[in-house]
Fold this protein.
Amino acid sequence: MTELLRAPLFHTPRNPFLQDRGLESHWDGGLLISDGRVAAAGDYQAIRAANPNATTTDLRGGFLLPGLIDTHIHFPQLRVLGGLSRSLLDWLEECALPEEVRMADESHARGIARRFIHALASHGTTTAMVFGAHFAPATAALFEAAGKSGLRIIAGMVLSDRRLRPELHQTPDGAYRDSSELIRCFHGRGRLFYAVTPRFAFSTSEAMLEVCQTLLREHEGLRLQTHLNENAREITEVAKLFPWASDYLAVYERFGLAGRGTVMAHNVHPTVSEIERLAASGTAVAHCPSSNAALGSGLFAMKRHVKAGVRVALGTDVGGGTGFGLLKEALQAYLLQRVAPDGALLDAAQMLYLATRAGAEALGTENEIGDLQPGKAADVVYIRPPADTPLSAVLERVETPEQALAAIFTLAGAESIQEVRVEGSVVYRQTAGGPHL
Ligand SMILES: [Zn+2]
């Protein structure tokens, strides 16, 4: 089945931080999808002429973007969104951890999993790297809901054996056993993949970090996700817990946990050496600007990371962040960089790259997803603002693709996400009677 979608389209096949003309845009755009793959992306008339038999779907009035990629988000924290006015460690103790304990109840976990996956899709996110729960059945519930949805989900059971709450702690042996079983059940099943997930060095002993290393060695293609240098108090505590480590990153390096396929969230307070080592090892950083601002963690040194060659992508960090929208997250990155000392001045192409292709590069899946080049999976978001909204008014008068894209990042929320596809198949469509999955 070959289908030709007609609408203005944008994607960033090249890194706009490194090259001019990173943004590719087609005002009268065509996206030819064949068997779930992008067969062509470009000018509608040219693609139409070369493929006269393709079924055309006229989507003019809206815009096509690659599926959005969220590289840092917590499944059990859906209901703690909005816990403002605290810093990281107090927020964990008072808001996040009590809610995460409730994931011991499997039926509760199933309900949250369904709503969590729906929220991803309804915000245009087609791929996400997700912190599961501290409990295996709840993490399995996340994978099962993800499997039914068609989204690409990389997730893992969260591992900790100290300093949180006793209900959330596992033994290293138990963590190994449960993780191995979850890997056996879900890793590589359809669009699901497993990420070994030590919560952060603050809550994991050396024995637990060794378990993480063992799991990575025992299975092909696993990813790893954790947190790094988020908050000043956290960093001081980690230094006390691992007195042999020269810095925070060195804790993870000792156990072979840095490198390609690893995503470390935040890195708001890095040393010069840490930035250099992240770049050298290909370790990615998930930048979560809403969370960094909401928890008062600090301002991310985007320029220093990019200049050093660190892979930087975006994460919403629900529930330390402020919601599921990656478009809003890219805007938040823009806003914080605007006021940061020596901040980067982000343009619309860089914002799109951060929300799409940069995520694919961080996850090591850039050959499969992240832009709309021929051969890629047809993961697409169709954005069309409702009539009589500020965004629809702005889009009436824009004169260039860059202006349209900047307006979308500034004003588009979930109400403007009309349709979301993964490998060409619709995984979410907003209907007149309200959204459904
Ligand atoms: Zn986080």
Observations:
- The longest strand covers residues 37-43.
- The chain has a mean pLDDT of 97.
- The pocket of zinc ion is lined by residues 72, 74, 227, 265, 317, 320 (CB under 6 Å).
- The radius of gyration is 21 Å.
